[in-house]
Each structure stands twice: as C-alpha cells, then as structure tokens.
Design a protein that fits this description.
heterodimer, A: 141 residues, alpha+beta, Ribulose 1,5 Bisphosphate Carboxylase/Oxygenase, four-stranded antiparallel β-sheet, two-stranded antiparallel sheet, 3 helices, B: 321 residues, alpha/beta, Rossmann fold, five-stranded parallel β-sheet, two-stranded parallel ribbon, globular, ATP-binding (chain B), CbxX/CfqX_mono (chain B)
Chain lengths: 141, 321
C-alpha cells in the first residue's frame, strides 16, 4: 500500500530534477529546508529522524540535493522527506513537506480491533513492516 | 533547446553572443569603476572570452571539457581583490556558469571548527550556502597551519578540495591573500594549486591611481578637495606609502575618513554660518594636519606611530596563535 503523506504523494515519485525544482521553489520563498528519514511511517509518527541540521541561508538547491544523496546512501530502504520551514512571523511552521524516497515494497497497515468493556471496539492501525522487524531492518529486502 | 538545429549552423557571430550574454556592461563597469589594475582587467577579459567561446563551442556541438573556474587572487591589502571577486561572480552568472551569482565571503573562522568533529559540518554548511555562486575565501593561507599538526584547517582543506573537484558546476572557489604567503600555501598544498586554473595577481596602485581613487571616493560621499588640498594629498600619498602597514586603497579611505573628521571639527569650532560649499570642501589644512607631514621619516618614529595616528587597518594583520 502506497503511503500518501505530504505534498505530491498521490503523484508518481518525483524525479531528481523535479525535487530540485521544488527545493528551488522553497528557497525562493525564503524557507529553510530540512531532510528527515524514518522506517516507521505511521501517520501519527510526526517526528522523523533528522538527517543533519536544517539548512538556512541557502541560495541554490545543489546543497540540499547533495545532502539528500548522502542521506539516501546512509539510509537505503527508508522513507525520506524534505520539509520546508517558513520562519516568517505568524507562520513559523513547516509550509511544505514531501516524500523523496520510499522503500521498494510497502506492505501497508493492518486495522487492529481491540474489544473493550461492553463489547465496544477500539480501532487502531499497525504497520506490517514495523511489527515484523526491529528498527533499522524493517524494509531491507 | 533546439540544439540539433543550432548544430548545423557553421558560423557564429561572437559579437552578438557577447551582447546577448550581457557581460559587455559588466566588463565596461569593471573598466570604468576600477582605477588601474590593468593586468587584472586583462585576465578577467580573457576568462570571460574563454567562457564565451566555450559556450559557443558547446552550441556547435564541439565537446569541451567543463572549464575549471576556481581562481586565486593574490595581492597586497587594499588592491581590490574582493571588489573584483564580486564582478567576477556577476560575469560568471551572466555567462551561465554560476546559477545564482552570489558571493559568500568567508575566512578561516567560518570554515574551521574549534574541536574534533566541528570542522566538517561547519565547512559543509558554508559550502552549501555558497552553492550556485562564488565562495570567496579571504586570507586562505590561514587554513593551513603547519606549526600545529593537530590543527583542524587541514580537514577543511580536504573537504574543500573534494567539493572543488566533484561539484565544479555548483560552485566556484576564489582564494585570496598576500602573494608570498599564498605561494607558500600552494607549495604545501599541491592539490589545491592544481585545482585552481586562474592565478590573478593584483599589482599595487601607483601614486597617481591612488589620487584618482581618493577623488572618486570623495565624489561618492559628496566631498571634494580644493586645489591646494589636492596637491597636499598627492604629497600625503607619497609619504604614507613609506610607512608600515600601507594598505593601498584602504589606507586612502581611512585617511579620507580622518580628514573628514578634521574638517568637521574645524567647521564646528569656526562657529560662523556655513554654506554648502564649506561643507563639501576639504582644505589643505585638513590634509596637512595629518601626522605624516609632521614626521616624514618613517624609521625614526615607527614606535609611537600607533598612539598618534588612529588607523583601524593597522591591526588587521592577524596574530598567529
């Protein structure tokens, strides 16, 4: 099951040229770009691992792309996303976030039903990949 | 673009190319705004011409290796290295060899960290900021400190070299510094020397050129010399040159700043009503009050130079520690 989080996630995966163009847009807006990765893509897992510090004062996407490639080499088979943080007063938040790498196979999520008092059901989601293997080996072939 | 169609054209108008690129005005501005520096201007022209020809060759389908654009600017302080670096960035930008055309000026402190593991992220951050433009490293020889074998400068140099080699399209590095120390720096870092294609040497200004520079600075600030002051200033330049810590145009700027101070005080103490002319004009007295005239022999009074004449440039020579 293809995970859809952030911008462009219903589109085919972005090519490097498209990623560069999007990062260029972010930098033109004056946003700081950060790279994050995880192998636990639960929708409620907002805090992914940071790959290096957010990059402030960049003029050109080349720096982001070289960091992204370094992150891809270091973390193959994980989800990697690019966040763009808008520091202007009143926003001060992530304005754009999109996935730039995903594992080859995404087994998806299972609906967990928990029966509680009075036969009522609590529902939650559990990732097959996360349940199957410990952290760091979840999406390795 | 329509490359195959262009490839069939077998003549190209270089003049038109030159105009289209819009570098004509940059080169003209360089020629016009900067006094002297004839060899530097020539080198900049050569580089611009090479890049232009390369671009045309590419369009004709003649494969050329991407030119190496890293440069080293050597010369004494105040000879215009930073200014020319800014113009160079502009030229590279117009010719499409630099995507953004901005200049990130750094020194050792911005690249080298203070403890183990601090240098690499610091250097990389600066490199990332400079991507798409020009990284100008002032006094680059301070990166290399042979007397301290645990110095982190070497680490910065290695990262720098790697990026200079692998990301040539993304970044142009310009190293700047005094000629003799740069020579020493290159001698101890042959990898650095071989990756730098263009070595540009900035000559010292002649006395006449410094006079021109002074006039231009004053015009910019809406001041002018009266004729006697002009003559006195020419004399001042000759005397100042013999002094230690002479920094060409920068010394001139500082001297002019001090003359403006004297003029302001003179006007203030005069107390009479002033007209615009008095506010604009620097007189001979303002120039001659300089201590250079009081003690024209540099050797005899070199000790108390420091106390008498405030010159902020005097201490720019950094202490090696």
């Amino acid at each position: 099951m293809r995970i859809t989080q952030g911008c462009f996630s219903f589109l085919p995966d972005l090519s490097d040229a498209q990623i560069t163009a999007q990062v260029h847009y972010c930098l033109r807006q004056g946003w700081a770009v950060a790279i994050e990765y995880t192998d636990d893509p639960h929708p409620r897992n907002t805090y992914w691992n940071m790959s290096g510090l957010p990059m402030f004062d960049l003029q050109d996407p080349a720096g982001v792309i070289s960091e992204l490639n370094a992150c891809r080499r270091a973390n193959p088979g994980t989800y990697i996303r690019i966040n763009a943080f808008d520091p202007t007063q009143g926003w001060e938040t992530v304005r754009m976030s999109f996935i730039v790498q995903r594992p080859d196979s995404e087994p998806g999520f299972r609906l967990v039903r928990q029966e509680t008092r009075g036969r009522s059901l609590h529902y939650t989601m559990e990732s097959y990949a996360v349940a199957r293997h410990p952290e760091g080996t979840r999406y390795r072939a | 673009m329509n490359a195959p169609e262009k490839a069939r054209i077998d003549t190209i108008d270089l003049g038109a190319e030159f105009r289209d690129a819009g570098i004509a005005e940059v080169l003209e501005a360089l020629e016009h705004d900067l006094v002297g520096l004839a060899p530097v201007k020539r080198r900049v022209r050569e580089i611009a011409a090479l890049l232009l020809v390369d671009r045309v060759r590419q369009r004709l389908g003649l494969s050329t290796q991407a030119p190496s654009l890293h440069m080293s600017f050597t010369g004494n302080p105040g000879t215009g290295k930073t200014t020319v670096a800014l113009r160079m960035a502009e030229i590279l930008h117009r010719l499409g060899y630099s995507r953004r055309g901005h200049v990130v000026a750094v020194t050792r402190d911005d690249l080298v960290g203070q403890y183990i593991g601090h240098t690499a992220p610091k250097t990389k951050e600066v490199l990332k900021r400079a991507m798409g433009g020009v990284l100008f490293i002032d006094e680059a020889y301070y990166l290399y400190r042979p007397e301290n074998e645990r110095d982190y400068g070497q680490e910065a140099i290695e990262i720098l070299l790697q990026v200079m080699e692998n990301q040539r399209d993304d970044l142009v590095v310009i190293l700047a510094g005094y000629a003799d120390r740069m020579e020493h720096f290159f001698a101890s870092n042959p990898g650095m020397k071989s990756r730098i294609a263009h070595h540009v040497d900035f000559p010292d200004y002649h006395d006449g050129e410094l006079g021109d520079i002074a006039e231009r600075m004053l015009a910019q600030w809406n001041y002018r010399f009266d004729p006697a002051a002009r003559l006195a200033f020419a004399e001042y330049i000759t005397l100042r040159r013999q002094r230690p810590h002479f920094a060409n145009a920068r010394s001139i700027r500082n001297a002019l700043d001090r003359m403006r101070l004297r003029q302001a005080l003179r006007l203030f103490e005069q107390g009479n009503p002033l007209d615009a002319d008095a506010l604009i004009t620097l007189t001979e007295a303002d120039v001659r009050a300089s201590r250079q005239f009081a003690s024209p022999l540099p050797a005899t009074e070199s000790d108390d130079v420091r106390d008498l004449d405030f010159d902020p440039e005097r201490d720019t020579d950094r202490i090696d520690y």
